[in-house]
Amino acid sequence: MRILVTGGQGQLGSSLQRALAAHDVVALGHADLDVANSRSVDDAVARYEPSLVIHAAALTDTGRCEREPAVARAINGIGAENIAKACRRVGARLIAISTNEVFDGEKTSPYLESDATGPLNAYAISKLDGEWLAAAACPDTLVVRVAWLYGSGGNNFVEKVKVAAASGRPLSFVTNEVATPTSTEDLAVAFGQLIERKAPAGIYHLTNAGEASRYDWAVEILRLAGLADVTIEPVTAAELAARGYEGPRKPAYSVLANTRAAALGARLRPWREALAAYIENARIATDV
User: What is the pLDDT of residues 54-63, one digit of tens each?
Assistant: First the structure.
């Protein structure tokens, strides 16, 4: 099967290339494909004639999305629609990546695929627009919501925590922003399972198992990296704001329940196990 991956040079795109190596994978980065430009999208899809498109390209800089909501919608919303329309024209299936942030965070138990959405920031609004527009333009669309991704070769939260720890300064992370850290390697394998099982169109939630606050995640990163002696302070989002931190509003609780994917046999391991494997692999790569 020929699979076209947008955002193919990012963390998830790179993991998808490895996990789907048995297929004919074409991975396009931003330099190759401008998803906000319908002609660029049409030309790429017509050139490669994929049977499946995994749309991982996105503007994920939430601060920029807040400052430039029109740009966020052009890339995350209209971009998804452009991809979906091109898929429909060539008869390709579409897997469109979305986010846990489409929810308002008011629940205290994991969000089901059927739960009502309520995005709190410009990034989340643009991603929810992308969900709706993609599904409307291409009926054979799987919307896959993910959360807190990290993978090799990226400037992700794990690497940022390790760099911050090396500075020797005390660290602060919030306790009231809870979701699930998710390995792109594990996620890419689960995508392969959905493809093999010919998962029907609709919304899916895919993350590693369990839940954590940003503080919990940072503590575990430091422990696994041998940096447990670094001073780390638990704070609330309100306390950070009072100190002058200005960032987009985030849902307090946005853990995703993986019900539909699990019913098809696609289950991801606990997040702590996945994180330990990532840090060990990074250590081995550094030693080589």
Answer: 999 999 999 9
